[in-house]
Amino acid sequence: MELVPLVFWLLTYTLLAAAGLPLAARLFRPLPTRGAGFALPVALVVLTTVGYWVGHVSFGIVAPAAGLLVLLALSALAGLDRDALRERRLELADDLGIERAVVVDTAAVFLVAFGFLIAVRLVDPAVHAGGGEKFLDFGLLKSLMRSPVLPPEDMWFAGEPVRYYYGGHLLTALVMKLSGVAPAFGYNLSLAGFYAMLVTAVFDLAGSIYAVRSGVAAGDGGGSDGRESNDGDSTGRSGGSRRARLVAGGFGAFFVGFASNLSTPARLVLVWAPEPYRTQLAQFVADQSPQLDAGEILAGTDSFSYWSASRVIPGTINEFPLFSWLNGDLHAHMMGTVFLLLAAALGYSYFRTPEGERRRRLALVFLAVPVVGSLQVYTDTWSFPSVFGLLFLAVTFAPSDPLSLVSPRLATRVSTRLDGSWVGTELARTGGALAVTGLAGGLGVLLSLPFLLAAGASREVALLEPAMRSTLGGLALVHGAFLLAFAVYLYRRVDVDDRLLLLVALAVVTAVAVGQNLAVFALVVPLLIFGWLALRMDRDVGYETVLVVAGAGLVLLVELLYVKEQAGPGRMNTVFKTYMQVWVLWATAMGAVLPGLVRGSPLSTPTLRPRAVRSTVGVAVVLFLVASTSIYGGLALGQHFGTQSGSTLDATAFADQQHPEEAEAIRWLDRQADAETVIISAPAASNYPGATSGSYPYPPGMYRWDSSPAASLTGVPTVAGWAHEVGYRGPEAYYGRVRVVDAAYTGSEADFQTLVDDHGVDYVWVGPAERARYGDSLAVTEMDGLTVAYETEEVTVYRVGGA
């Protein structure tokens, strides 16, 4: 029977992608693929945006129905021949330019990626509480499915709306409503869907960039390495174009979907190093990663854990896609990646659009990007600035003048007045790009105001103290594969004078890095500076370098600033949410960079080395990068399939196996509850602030099965759930509720009645967590006005107010 939700889910994806294909073809007309790899994300942007706005009036079935109707209407406007429509005939417009081979390639990549993640989730589908945020993610899905309007009620803070960015969960809920798939299956199917969309998006964008850069998209048969053409009419209708796209897209898909950082190969290489260097190097690697000690490193594969590679730089989280999807959270930093790539692709479409097509450029900048940006606000707020940072870079480096978007006359007047001044021209271009980006960003904010006003939380941005900055070794282990490829690429793409400038710049920034404890300066600032100059000085680079600059800017930013918040100490969350963005941008750039290294592409000036030698070196570099970043995937997947067992996509099946009586009580509550139901259960917080260690109250804490399982697995709000609420609402609000709930369980009739009156409590949950937390102090079971509504040996649920 589990095949049924899988088929329904894929069928819904297929219909949505088909509706999104004409829209993608219009948005990405300058790309060789016509954006086929973005058809499903484009459709989901429309569906979710409309569903989000309509959902504030009525969610239920109205929101997905309205979103689907708008999507179909836009698809018809984009894809149907209008002359044929006037004659009452349905025909596709002739100028869509969608190739069947491109659609077949895209579908194949999506299905392979989707099938891979389904296989991963089949053996470990559980939304268990440990090691991640699965209780949060699944609870959000259940809350949305239960909610009559948006925003949904917070399952861990009854009576108040969710303050977490829930756009990806909203998207999943809309697909579940359209497909008829239940959350227990929708959770894992959506995980596979987001993974497949990300891999397919990178495959499409990397392949398009390389096909254009290598010349085959311009119809020259693939023999040119000249600078990227921006005529907007190159369609890449050649076998050479398809081969180029498949090679580059394949590299991109590998680096976003399977590759890891260098911490795992670094550990294993040390096993073969001679003494005493082996022990010394092992200690050095251990110093870079708080998750390891030298003994574990020297144990080789025997001590391997998939978790350690995500905790390399002390005080931070350094996740990459394969780790995240193996871990299996349906979390914002994962779901937002495909829309970040969509923004990057829209930037590339602008980059390739001729200056004369002003209406098209206006539509991309002031309509398409703001809509994607607004979705990102409530899907993954952390990457909202990155959407418009990418727009700024695309507008800055595109051949067309940014000021021509505002007024072609103004652009001409400014250009004439500057009279060839390079500095003045660059300042005018940068200022114009900033102004355009600011206007587009303002539109994105306006489109997401309901979420911003409801979230109502502000964060302080602070300077990073020198002691908190990353070490050179830590940065190299996390980003080293990308940095090596980009350094070789840029070095080979420029002439001798530029190389000298690059070496001087590297020496200067290294000196600054040593003096100011800023290791990041030595690694990414040269990429930033030289990439920027190469793009603006018309060197032999293209949009892949825009992505390199974007990622380098993000890495630099989190070494200088961080966001102060409750979600983790120091800059942990800032690096966590930012590094995933860096990974997907740089993985896309890798797809466009590596084929050129293999081919040994010629430089813009003569070189002493023959092309065959350059190609051999390039092949060696690529083989090293692919081999070294594959080790983690091989070990992690072997461990995953070797130690896990199961054959279900039901995310809640584990509860029946491990906690059968509580699971049955949770199902009972799920059936009985409506949109107004509220429960109380033991708060998922150990001690009050300031309490002495081990003092009452103590269990259940977080990241455990007994941490609010009833609320998390049903979406029925509890008055005080996980201590995550401290980050959303502050410690005073959360712990104030914790005290009130504890008093209701252990105090007087008056304490209990006050809680019921203030929060409209319908059921009192008494299970293992409540007995562990309150012990002999548990008094609520003796209260008047409570009746047993459901009872097993482990769980008793009391109804408030009689039978």
From TrEMBL:
<feature type="transmembrane region" description="Helical">
    <location>
        <begin position="330"/>
        <end position="350"/>
    </location>
</feature>
<feature type="transmembrane region" description="Helical">
    <location>
        <begin position="184"/>
        <end position="203"/>
    </location>
</feature>
<feature type="transmembrane region" description="Helical">
    <location>
        <begin position="246"/>
        <end position="264"/>
    </location>
</feature>
<feature type="transmembrane region" description="Helical">
    <location>
        <begin position="61"/>
        <end position="80"/>
    </location>
</feature>
<dbReference type="InterPro" id="IPR018746">
    <property type="entry name" value="DUF2298"/>
</dbReference>
<feature type="transmembrane region" description="Helical">
    <location>
        <begin position="500"/>
        <end position="533"/>
    </location>
</feature>
<feature type="transmembrane region" description="Helical">
    <location>
        <begin position="101"/>
        <end position="123"/>
    </location>
</feature>
<feature type="transmembrane region" description="Helical">
    <location>
        <begin position="6"/>
        <end position="25"/>
    </location>
</feature>
<dbReference type="Pfam" id="PF10060">
    <property type="entry name" value="DUF2298"/>
</dbReference>
<feature type="transmembrane region" description="Helical">
    <location>
        <begin position="472"/>
        <end position="491"/>
    </location>
</feature>
<feature type="transmembrane region" description="Helical">
    <location>
        <begin position="545"/>
        <end position="563"/>
    </location>
</feature>
<feature type="transmembrane region" description="Helical">
    <location>
        <begin position="37"/>
        <end position="55"/>
    </location>
</feature>
<feature type="region of interest" description="Disordered">
    <location>
        <begin position="218"/>
        <end position="241"/>
    </location>
</feature>
<keyword id="KW-0472">Membrane</keyword>
<feature type="transmembrane region" description="Helical">
    <location>
        <begin position="427"/>
        <end position="452"/>
    </location>
</feature>
<feature type="transmembrane region" description="Helical">
    <location>
        <begin position="362"/>
        <end position="378"/>
    </location>
</feature>
<keyword id="KW-1133">Transmembrane helix</keyword>
<feature type="transmembrane region" description="Helical">
    <location>
        <begin position="617"/>
        <end position="637"/>
    </location>
</feature>
<protein>
    <submittedName>
        <fullName>Chlor_Arch_YYY domain-containing protein</fullName>
    </submittedName>
</protein>
<feature type="transmembrane region" description="Helical">
    <location>
        <begin position="575"/>
        <end position="597"/>
    </location>
</feature>
<feature type="transmembrane region" description="Helical">
    <location>
        <begin position="384"/>
        <end position="406"/>
    </location>
</feature>
<keyword id="KW-0812">Transmembrane</keyword>
